[in-house]
UniProtKB/TrEMBL annotation, chain A:
It is a multi-pass membrane protein. It comes from the Bacteria. The keyword Cell wall biogenesis/degradation does not apply. The chain crosses the membrane at residues 21-43, 277-304, 325-350, 362-387. Residues 22-239 form the MacB-like periplasmic core domain. It is found in: Cell membrane. One of its GO terms (molecular function) is transmembrane transporter activity. Signal peptide: none annotated. It holds the Pfam family FtsX. This is FtsX-like permease family protein.
UniProtKB/TrEMBL annotation, chain B:
It comes from the Bacteria. The keyword Zinc does not apply. Residues 7-246 form the ABC transporter domain. Belongs to the ABC transporter superfamily. Macrolide exporter (TC 3.A.1.122) family. This is ATP-binding cassette domain-containing protein. GO terms for molecular function: ATP binding; ATP hydrolysis activity; transmembrane transporter activity. It comes from Maribacter luteus. Gene3D superfamilies: P-loop containing nucleotide triphosphate hydrolases (3.40.50.300). Coiled coil: none annotated.
């Protein structure tokens, strides 16, 4: 043990003697570990943002739409879309879904007095505001009566206001959505950019109006949105909706549904999977820089072994065993990569803070990213340090002593 | 009581094979060196003295014959055992000192004790200090090797060879890199150490340095040509005198 400590000291000493070179060698590991930590943390941050965004939609949400089919590598919804008949069946018979709203999504150009913007326009019923629990910072929602009579009213998000009414009060003003004039009734409270999608880049209008003026009646609804009585009733609501729709669509036992019901939890799981894969992918790319850093260490260790051939010869001559030399150089490589790893952690954590300060995108430094970064650095040290160390240990002492 | 044999070789031979070509570096070397001897090995380059030193120093193995170091049959040892033998029984001194650069004299001298596995040198620092005092460097203990002169560096190397109290000190051209006066001082240090009971084997091609030894072995073409005691050994005083008054012919 004492001998091991001394060999450890020798390794530290040699790193310290060549501190400039050691630092440059470590740079590869520092950047690698920092990159791993920052990318994994960014992935975690994105996951969190998306999850917040989805739960912001309401925690007991159900989305009912036609079945999606996998065709030519993409998912397309080819079946009969949800329509008024489905909506009526659900609204009339449902026990677990007190709020239901058709949703017609359409991309359109919105033109205001001081600007224009391409955006998503959603045709919805009054219930939509209950379902998604969105609130207003000014004005009013359109009413059930407005929906029934297909008034050309709309509620806009903050991003739309900024583009169409910079510095102005939009309430009561006119905008044109694909040439159709609408009166702005309300302004939604800001939800913020969730990282992926701007929740305020949105226009809501009565679905009846959208159907009449922009979407047409033959296409049915994009989907039906519903909220369950409470989170505990989501499964019940899903079963209920499935039964009602199967009956209404006259689907025989054993045949597949021609529609799809996605709950908010399932949506969260799916996006969680996607961002999870993204995180792994980013982390893997960052790990490549760690491997490059490891090659840097191997390179320097090989140079170091060559440079110190005589020293190795001397050590062998005065009684060092091969294993002593192997240990010495291996420790040197591991210490290089571990110190680099520690500095990389500092670099990564500070980097996360800087990104947060600059972009306002919160990145939680995931503890496991630190563990992965550091563990990987240690592994790189052993893996890339072993070959040069073995080379040093296998030197013939006579040749090594003569080496100039 | 007969003196202990530090080195005993019987019919020692070493053949280097380089493809088809065989080179006989050493042939039938019978050499006995007893405790307390100071032997100089001389010979032209290519005479096999380096090969002999490597075998005696357990860095190389003979291809034929037997070799006993301090009573141990070296031929039967594996690599690790050879390393331990070098560590415990031999003190090496090299022509170019082979010290660790930018490292203190003390740490350099301590080095063999780091690799010692017997656990008998727990006070390595004190031992290193004592060895440095022995070679007259008590006031240079914490100097880094690059701050020392050539002669001082070689003294550090000698201290390193002494620190593990070896059975044999092996010096390979110890004065090869030094000027004449310093060479004489180093040679004189060997004489002192020998007087204190150390067994020393020194390879040199400088006759005036060999003249400090008690016995001279002359090699030629891998064989012992002459092996004789030295009658009029040089002393520091006589050598310096000779240096100051070169014999003119």
């Amino acid at each position: 043990m004492r001998r091991f400590l001394k060999i450890f000291k020798v390794a530290f000493h040699s790193i310290y003697k060549n501190r400039t070179r050691s630092l440059l060698t470590m740079l590869g590991i520092i950047i690698g570990v920092g990159a791993v930590i920052m990318t994994i943390s960014a992935g975690e941050g994105a996951t969190m943002a998306v999850e917040n965004q989805i739960s912001g939609l309401g925690t007991n949400l159900l989305m009912i739409q036609t079945k999606s089919e996998h065709k030519a590598g993409i998912n397309v919804r080819m079946g009969r879309p949800m329509d008024k008949k489905d909506f009526d069946v659900l609204q009339k018979n449902s026990v677990y879904m007190p709020n239901l709203s058709p949703l017609l999504a359409i991309g359109a150009q919105a033109i205001g007095p001081s600007g224009y913007k391409s955006t998503m326009v959603y045709g919805v019923s009054y219930d939509y505001f209950y379902i998604t629990s969105r609130e207003l910072q000014a004005g009013n929602f359109f009413t059930e009566e407005d929906v029934r009579t297909a008034k050309k009213y709309c509620v806009i998000g903050e991003t739309i206001r900024e583009e169409l009414f910079p510095g102005q009060d939009p309430i009561g003003r006119q905008i044109r959505i694909d040439k159709v004039p609408f009166t702005v009734m309300g302004l939604l409270t800001e939800e913020g950019t969730g990282g992926m999608q701007d929740m305020d880049d949105i226009i809501l209008a009565p679905y009846t109006t959208i159907q009449n003026r922009l979407y047409g009646h033959h296409r049915g609804y994009t989907m039906i949105m519903a909220s369950a009585l409470s989170e505990d009733h989501i499964t019940n609501a899903k079963v209920e909706a499935t039964e009602l729709l199967r009956e209404s669509h006259r689907i025989k036992d054993g045949e597949e549904d021609d529609f799809e019901i996605m709950t908010q939890i399932e949506l969260q799981e799916i996006t969680g999977n996607i961002t999870g894969i993204l995180t792994i992918l980013l982390g893997a790319i960052a790990s490549i820089s760690l491997i490059v850093g490891g090659i840097g260490i191997m390179n320097i260790m090989l140079v170091s072994v060559t440079e110190r051939t005589r020293e190795i010869g001397t050590r062998l001559a005065i009684g060092a065993r091969e294993s002593d030399i192997l240990t010495q150089f291996l420790i040197e490589a591991i210490v290089l990569s571990l110190v680099g790893g520690l500095l990389g952690i500092v670099f990564g954590v500070i980097g996360n803070q800087i990104i947060y300060k600059v972009t306002d995108f919160f990145i939680p430094t995931a503890f496991y990213s630190i563990a992965i970064g550091f563990g990987f650095a240690a592994l790189v040290g052993v893996a890339f340090g072993y070959f040069p160390a073995k080379k040093a240990a296998k030197l013939n002492p006579i040749d090594a002593l003569r080496y100039e | 009581m007969p003196l202990k044999k530090v080195i005993e070789t019987k019919q020692l031979g070493r053949i280097f094979k380089n493809g088809e070509i065989e080179v006989r570096a050493l042939t039938d070397i019978d050499l006995v060196i007893e405790e307390g001897e100071f032997v100089a090995i001389m010979g032209a380059s290519g005479s096999g003295k380096s090969t002999l030193l490597h075998i005696i120093g357990c860095l190389d193995r003979p291809t034929s014959g037997e070799y006993y170091l301090d009573g141990v049959d070296v031929n039967g040892l594996n690599k690790n055992q050879l390393a331990d033998i070098r560590n415990q029984k031999i003190g090496f001194i090299f022509q170019s000192y082979n010290l660790l650069s930018r490292t203190t004299a003390l740490e350099n001298v301590e080095l063999p004790l780091i690799y010692n596995r017997t656990g008998q040198f727990t006070n390595s620092k004190e031992l290193a200090q004592k060895a440095l005092e022995q070679v007259g460097l008590a006031d240079r203990i914490y100097h880094r090797t690059n701050e020392l002169s050539g002669g001082q560096q070689q003294r550090v190397a000698i201290a390193r060879a002494l620190v593990n109290n070896p059975a044999l000190i092996l010096a390979d051209e110890p004065t090869g890199n030094l000027d004449s006066t310093t060479s004489i001082e180093i040679a004189d240090l060997f004489v002192q150490l020998n007087n204190e009971g150390k067994t020393i084997l020194m390879i040199t091609h400088e006759p005036d340095i060999a003249q400090f030894a008690k016995r001279m072995v002359y090699l030629r073409d891998g064989r012992v040509l002459t092996d004789s005691l030295i009658e009029d050994r040089s002393t520091k005083e006589s050598a310096i005198k000779a240096l100051e008054n070169p014999v003119t012919t």
